[in-house]
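Recall from the previous chapter that SMILES is a line notation for molecules. Here it describes MTE.
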Amino acid sequence: MTAIELHQRRRFLQQGSALAVSATLSSQLSLGEETSKGTPTADGFIRGKDKRLIVHNAKVGEIETPLTLLREKGLTPKELLFVRNNQVLPETLTTEGAEVGDWQFELAGLLDKPRTVRAADLAKLPQEEVELVLQCSGNGRANFAKTVKAEGVQWKHGAMGNVAFKGVRLKTLLDHLGVNIEPEAKFIAAEGKDSPAKSGDADFEHSIRLADALDRSILALNMNGEAIPKVHGGPLRLITPGYYATMNVKWLSRLRFEAQESTNHHHVGRYRTPLKPIAPGSKFTSTLENSEPNWNMRIKSAIFAPLEGEKVSAKKVEVRGVAWNDGTAKIEAVEISTDGGSSWRQVELQRPKSPYAWHPWRLAVELPKGSQTILARAVDALGRSQPLDGSIAWNPAGYAWNGVDSVTVVVDSA
Ligand SMILES: Nc1nc2c(c(=O)[nH]1)N[C@H]1C(S)=C(S)[C@@H](COP(=O)(O)O)O[C@H]1N2
Ligand SMILES: [Mo]
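With both inputs in hand, we obtain:
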């Protein structure tokens, strides 16, 4: 067993005892099968998920899409999409679409007056569909272990997917209702209907920038053309394209218009990166002043093929992958290097309709025989790119990795 496997095994054993006390979860468990390691498969605790997903935490639901499955489809199907629950809303452990029913949410805080909105009424307003990368800010955290391992689930590439959310723009709803936002309001804190596992723990919530919310947030009722799966936040999820998935609050129950960012533990003590670089391994306690929230996604690229360790033929190696950023500036190019970053060549880049979606790319290259490393990086119109050494952005919880992606392959003479 490798150290990571051992760690996962230990985690699972800890989770196992916690599972036993939860009637809902343990009855769901009987649904699935066991893997060779004795852990339940993803469908064992989230009905409808693909058995082949990587289970990191069966207690709250943290599952990752292996790269081999992630790369198969342009739009990630709900069966394959990663899940990250910080807290469990027990009735949502399924990919089944959520009925809107009598779901309501509140608009509160610095407004002319508070309001309660029926989610069913949103369907009567103009709808907008946005294809976007849904990516946990912990995606790629495992890479920080090249210097000092970061705390938390060791996600590789698969805490992300490319999905299409559809709903009403928040701005459209506010205009429709004639809501007046007070000028002091600068942020919106979003709350979901889930609650903490232990009483006394902070309830999961996040603040987003009011300006971004008015520019592009969507009150989404649909994902990939159907009602949002319960596990992905249905019936109602706040989606801010270009933001990390962390900020896209599931099971939306309230929006508070506020002058300051939320002082909630999940928003202040977690999900932030230091404003100034810190040395790998340093201690760091985030505050509203010394760090920034995981809002806009850092520019990134992922190599989908060849896979790490794959045997390829020297004549023609088809390198392909995807790139994305926060959608606020055009991705100018994706480049690959086969000489450790000394020289780079541009790949053929596809431009999707939505600036927030995966940008697929490809290039056929010839490689010398032996073990060869391929690097990929994206660059956008603001000159933002990916560092060769991603650990320069090291932080204790390993958020927002965006180092150059790399695979090492074995090139033969065939
Ligand atoms: N209400 C609520 N919303 C939430 C969370 C949560 O625990 N509760 N987790 C967040 C995090 S950290 C991530 S990465 C995404 C995961 O979205 P998914 O489970 O649909 O893939 O949901 C975000 N929204
Ligand atoms: Mo996340």
